[in-house]
Write a structure and sequence with these properties.
By secondary structure, this protein is α/β, with parallel strands linked by helices. The protein has 17 helices and 19 strands. It has a seven-stranded parallel β-sheet.
Amino acid sequence: MYPSPLDNSIADLVHAKSVEILSEVGFCVSDGDALGRLEALGFPVDRESNMVRITPELLETALARLPDDVKLYNRTGDKPASFPRSIPSAGETGRGFDRGSCFMGAGTPVNVFDLKTGIRRPATRQDVCDLGSLQDALPQVDIVRPTVTATNQGESSDLVEIAELLRHTTKPVVHRTLSPERVDAAVEMLAAVAGGLDALRAHPTFATLYCPISPGYFTPENVRCMLRWAEYGVPITLLSMAMGGASAPATLLGELVVINTDILAWIVALQTLYPSTPLLYGSVSAVLDMRTGLLPLGAPERGMVNSGAALMAHYYGIPSMCGGLSSDAKELDAQAGYEKAVTAIPLLLEGTSIIYGVGATDAGSTISYGQMVLDDEMIAGLRRMIQGITLHDLDEEVALIKENTPRGNFLKAKHTRRTFREHWQPQIMSRDAYEAWQAKGETISGICRRKAMDVLAEHQPPLLPPNVEAEMERVMRRYLGPDFHFDS
């Protein structure tokens, strides 16, 4: 789906209302140093409330400084994944990776469904390693996240998670740290893998992400972390977690104004402080369920409001990272299938750069190995669907139809043998006759768990060079203590 006049009207309206809020009310900058720097650069500042307003001149200058595109590279830096500044015209292809939208692992709850027992338990450092390796092996996962928090690693788990991802995947990686000091440590390791700071800046293999507290606030720690990453030129995702009916108006359009205002504020701030910083426009927003008081991530409104965020990313010419492929289900069942489809398809149709949610279950509070495997298969089918019908010369087909009219059969035609492989074939979902399916005696859940176990037993991501791994271990010991070590 390409922007219609209605889409353009929505984007124009949301932008105008966001500018109105930012020029009249502003946004809160909770870090004193950042507040002073913005004031010195011409932002109107209220020192009592720490509120910062944006002038039309600052807005125009900042938007003009956005880089033409954002690229993430694989571990070796030789395969860029480019996110164009706008979606293509009708008939063109090439959004994000060459397969349209990219898909990324979810993150980062503290629970996981144990692969062997199926029982929900706290996630560990070993889960980070295993889920990283599983994402590395799954062909439809383009970008890797820790997906879980290593709860047995204390408050510095974020640094451990980054280190283990660098060891367990060759794909681009996305994560964050919760202190600026750990930003420095992470960059040291990223630079070691990339071949130096200059190489990391030129060919970033990593992007980070930070969430505002809507409306209009980032914690001081998050502000300091974002500014530190920006110093190194690392791509930053401004990732809204607005809750319609709680931290934002209950209407989807009103919620979209909050999402956009929060993100636009820091687009302007970061582009003013660090011109040409690569930015992504992100949203994992949803609407509050007034019956339960919970945030349902499988609701159709989630796909709707986050596709609106992708629309605004197109409006500003930056790539988008939006939550979809989401579910509130507690197991691999019909609810999970429905909710994952209904939250992903709107994002695909809007040309979202990165869709965030592989492996997520239980309203994002638990990761499932089996669900991750099934999501990989679902993505393959969705990618086939989004290709649409290819326009091509029909002379051969027309001749074949004429030859077989009336009541002919195309099964033995050379054309059929040559072209039928274009159609997608599932590896997990069953198309067998009932008797054949019954004879196999396996549920989808069982197949997915078995496949995940097989992958982890057989797949070994390429090892880092010994000198790089030694340098990473040295960095980790300096920040976390002399007892830290990587398992062989």
